[in-house]
Amino acid sequence: MSSIIGAASDIALVVSAEGIILSVVLNAQSDSFGNLKHWEGRPVVDFLTRECVPKFETAHEAYMAGEVPRKPLELNHSDNAVWQYPVRYTFHRFGQENAALLLGRDLRPIAETQQQLVQAQIALEQGYEARREFDARFRVLLANSDEATVFVSVRSGRVDDANEAAANLLGVKLESLKGSSFAQHFADRSNVELTESLMNATLSEEGGRVTLKASRGRQTLVVKPVVFRAGGQRVLLCRIASDEGTEKSPDVAAAQALDLFRTGSDAMIFMTGKGVITSVNESFLDVIGAAHLSDVVGRSFADFLGRGQIDLSVLTDHPKKGGQMRIYATKLINDLGARLTVEISATHLEEANDVVIGCVIRDVSRVEAARPQSSVPSPMAPESARNVMDLVGSASLKDIVAETTDVVEKMCIETAVELTGNNRVAAAEMLGLSRQSLYVKLRKYGLLSKNG
Question: Is the Cα torsion angle 272, 275, 276, 279 positive or negative in sign?
Answer without folding.
Answer: positive
